[in-house]
């Protein structure tokens, strides 16, 4: 576990890749939420 933490957060490339992964997950969650909200039936 310490090896993976050092690999991900120990160097700038690993940190940048983790930031990209988390931002991608956030953007996809936002798009999914907007799709659900917009496709909900209007009262």
UniProtKB/TrEMBL annotation:
It comes from the Bacteria. Pfam families: DUF3149. The chain crosses the membrane at residues 12-37. Keywords: Membrane, Transmembrane, Transmembrane helix. InterPro entries: DUF3149 (IPR021494). This is DUF3149 domain-containing protein. The lineage of its organism: Bacteria, Pseudomonadati, Pseudomonadota, Gammaproteobacteria, Alteromonadales.
């Amino acid at each position: 576990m310490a090896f993976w933490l050092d690999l991900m957060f120990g160097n700038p490339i690993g940190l940048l890749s983790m930031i990209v992964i988390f931002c991608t997950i956030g953007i996809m969650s936002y798009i999914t939420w907007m799709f659900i909200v917009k496709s909900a039936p209007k009262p």
